[in-house]
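Notes on consecutive records. When two proteins share a document, each keeps its own sequence and its own token line. Never mix them. Below: protein one.
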Amino acid sequence: MLNGELRSKVDQVWNAFWAGGIANPLEVIEQITYLLFMRGLDDIQTREENKANTLGRPLERVIFPKGVYRKDRHGKDVTYEQLRWSRLKNADPARMFELTAEHVFTFLREMGEDGTAHAEHMSGARFTIPTPGLLARVVDMLAEIPLEDRDTKGDLYEYMLSKIASAGQNGQFRTPRHIIRLMVELTAPTPNDTICDPASGTCGFLVVAGEYLRDNHKGLFRDTELNKHFHNSMFHGYDFDQTMLRIGSMNMQLHGVEAADIRYRDSLAQEHGDDAGAYSLILANPPFSGSLDYETTAADLLSIVKTKKTELLFMALFLKLLKPGGRAAVIVPSGILENDGSAFEKIRRNLVENFEICAIISLPHSTFKPYASVATSIIIFKNTGRTKNVLFFKIENDGFGSGADRREIPGSEIPSVIEQFKAHQLGNNIDKTKKTRSVDVDEIVGSRYDLSPAFYLSGYEYPKNVQTAAIGELFDVAIGNLPASQEEMGEFPFITSGSEIKKSEVFAWTGPAIVIPTVSSTGHGHASIKNIHYVEGKFSAATITAVLTPKRGVEILVKYVYYFLITHKDEVLVPQMRGATNVTLSLDRLKRIQVPVFNGKEEQASRIEALEIESQEIQRYETLRSAHQATFTQLLTKFRSEI
């Protein structure tokens, strides 16, 4: 971890950039990246010179040759030696600025021809620091940091990356470090792995995978071949944003990986014949939003799933790239797991039938704050054949609060998830709770390949030895007939999603019937149902509700089903709601919901009687609670007015 003094210096430089007119955090990091690269080049040459002097032989690699690089604006010679960090940092601010703007960055761009991926990323280098004074402050700050210490320079860069407080284009969000560590811990990289992130961004996943290997496989650096593999052929990252490529490549270098393969690639547009089945471990958090034209999408991905949606195309890409026997941990939006569209179901079917899904971990909505509040999950799967059973988790506390600042809080459930996942992988039974459950593949196939954690973790267990029937077998199900904003007038009850019953001039149904809201009663991305209505007589209903009327010839007491649904709505109805922003309950899903069917109307009537007594008790309690709450509020208001 960086100490407070070093953090303070970074903050001061950051503020200086801001005051100097550079407000884009990515541009700030990019400018610092160029200077770090220059310092790194000087360090490499210094090591080569020391090695050559010790061994008494010529330099094996020359970055800064002897002699003149070119002439400056005054006609004076500028030597390669003057471009070295060790010389540049001691120049006066005006000379430092002139050399950097007119010669150092030209030198960096020319280095793009030396063949290394990192140098290629520098071919588009632009110098945008506006004043000699700001440049001198940045150089002084970087000069004081002990970059020979891998942990310190890595922490420095991570601290700067944490300052990126705005979302990238096309739904790109920086993945929180603790979530990356969770995914790496669960996939446990080995020294023989070949690791890929096809949407690498700042290379956070690859960096943490490297740290995991350093901590858990220290012996790999004593093995010549494994050491060479680690530095040259283990890590692969693709991105089509040149700024991200520069930042990601520098991030890998500063974390001690000498020649990671970080390169330009439009992962969804280019064919993958050269790396299909090439990677034993895939770690990724691809863009969630956006769409492509079929003409610009790789044909080999469209052969897996024909779609324009980028989240589905990235899933197809992961399946394409994963080596037989390999494993992956990727973050996906909720739609991948639960959307009823044919393309979504096809990709889930492919995952279940041709790959082994190990676990699906639901993350808190606040995971990606301050960028967005979205429903996401981690899928962990292997290319080892058909799925057997899936371990579902729901994380509510990831160790950080739900506010935009995401402050650290106690009680993180992540250690428990890691422990239970590893136990499950060893074949141990996992106790079912409201946050954890192991689900057999036959149940998943029977649920039309639904992979929603909320669905399997609903908590409701149907009574044993009691027959069940689908709502669609017992009831005719239809959408309401009037807009919810309908002007209130007339003699017939008009049922909406609210608790109060309005009036209408027309009616569409004659009860008994059940009216269920089809749109969530709470905000963005959250599923909930507050009110369900039992109706007798003639009535109308809003188009944001579903109306259940008993089928002819079906022996069922409507009020019994109503009490079952109102009692278990959070366990039976709400988990069937779908949508990332506008959360709704489709008629198709509603029809598939099972209800217990006890023998005959007499048995149902006796249960209704017991449920009504219980309901009256609950209502009496709610009335008392409301009265007490009102009294308390009045007393509190009076107390505040008197102090």
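Protein two starts on the next line and is unrelated to protein one.
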Amino acid sequence: MASEPGIPVARPAATLAALGLAMGSIAWSAGSLREWWQERQEAFAVEDAGFRPRRGAEPPEGPTPNPTNAWAAFAARRPVDGLTPAVLYGTTNIWTVHLRFDPEQWAAIEPRSIEPMERGRDFGGRFELRNPAARRSGLSGVRGIEFDWVHGVVEFEDRLFADAAVRYKGNGTYLRSQSSAKRPFKVDLNKFVKGESLASRTTLNFGNLVTDDSCLHDALGYEVYRAAGVPAPRTAFARLFLSPGTVSPGYLGLYVLVENLDAKFAEERFGTRAGAIFKPVTTELFSDLGDDWAAYQPIYDPKTRVTPDQTSRVIGLSRLLTHADDATFAGQVGDFLDLEAFARFLAVTVLLSSYDGFLTNGQNFYVWLDPDSGRFHFMPWDLDNAWGRFGMAGSAMDRAHASIDRPWVGRHRLLERVMGVPEFQMRYRAVLAELLDTVYVPEVLHRRVEALAAPLRPIVSEESHRRGARFERAVTSTALEEPDGEAGWGRDRAAHPLKWFIAERAASVRAQLAGTEPGVILGRWR
């Protein structure tokens, strides 16, 4: 972990008790559950620990190194009294976190099966991502998977939360990790014991990085949004350990810790908790569904309590978008959308070719409603498939050259209408040009990749030999591994070269702004 003000460095020696726990865990790894230790990270399905292989999940990788550095960190956990949000989410900080469950709790965390939607149901080339039978929107719910909160113990460095709420999280990242122990987790410190928090935060999001060979897509992507003036979560990293049931601690590997977008986030970023936060999932954003908020509520999934005035703003923009003629829409859309903020959000999303979300399938973004202006602001979420990584929209080369004038896939009524306003399109293109000179600068971003990758390299290499090799290719390569820009699918896919994408995308956007390249209009399937 990088040295941060107010956070002591790691203790030079472990206590005898902590050292004994680490040694006991090493002994456990050499015993009857050795495979659980050796085949972690997309790798280990352990029936003794309660894991079951799932259909469609990736198979085990094989033996991995003994993670001695991870166990040294586990044995020398640091005091975190007085931790501030800025330090908690220091980008290069790597925390040690231990999740513990008794047998009943561990059995209860397994997802429940609910009625799935018809498999492969498709709307105009895009999958429906809301199952009315599921509490959560997303692919997991569509496939009939429901996550329940369970009681568990969370140890964050030396801080113990004896009765925290824990559940699995995610959609693609969960489905990809069903046959492994390295699943994504969400922790609510305040759900069962009111008043509990860590650095004034109550919710911790642990992403398992199974779709991101570089482990940097979230951290670097959110940095670019923030540098461009778009409110976005901060990140840190964590080594995650798990004690399932009566089993001794096992090491899961490296996770990304992502700041939760909630009322506390809004208070810090916008100076007020009075605004409303929504997390929509729909390919028909702001479509008129009538006057009854009940029709909108499951689609917009408010994360804060909403007032009638706030819900009326959603309905009002929906009416305008659906029914207004072009002149009326151009004259009034600025009353509902902060157009400068929207131009910046869209410009960064387009530069990152972030196609697992707003531009494609109508998910992975938040909307904040300013209580003073009544205007909506967009915020990014879930960037593991950003940087041109999402393989369901063109090839890697296509995504690096994706059109800046028509960056969406399929129909996108909101973008079609907003981009049809000449003043907005001029401002959006001006923001793209500005960011290419100030924020999205390949030489600067390449150096940042190197700086972020350096402390992660020894940690990733302890997960598996394959994982370490793919990490190296993802963070160092400046060329595609295959001439067609895409190699394999799932486990056999080529590692996505982050530096190559950064440079290729910057050159393409510059050329499109200059009118010397048309850009690629992406289709749903590559």
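For the record: The two ends are 40 Å apart (CA to CA).
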